[in-house]
Write a structure and sequence with these properties.
The protein contains three helices and no strands. The chain is mainly alpha-helical and 62 residues long. The protein has a domain of 37 residues. 0% of the residues are buried. InterPro entries: Arc_rbn_hlx_hlx, Ribbon_hlx_hlx.
Length: 62
């Protein structure tokens, strides 16, 4: 198994509560759910797994 790297950040209490509920309903840890959400966003926006890159600022790329 590959080593993982810690990442700490602050979030609003309502987001933390929603993550906790969603993680529990999906039978996973909050950390696992956050990693899944981040990876999905990165794939959808072309930053992970060979997807084409899409700028975060498409209006400026035109």
């Amino acid at each position: 198994m590959a080593k993982t790297h810690p990442l700490g950040f602050r979030i609003e209490p309502d987001i933390k509560e929603a993550l906790t509920v969603a993680a529990k309903e999906d039978h996973r840890s909050v950390s696992s759910l956050v990693e899944l959400i981040i990876a999905k966003w990165l794939r959808e926006n072309g930053y992970l797994a060979g997807q084409p890159h899409r700028s975060l600022r498409p209006a400026l790329d035109a």
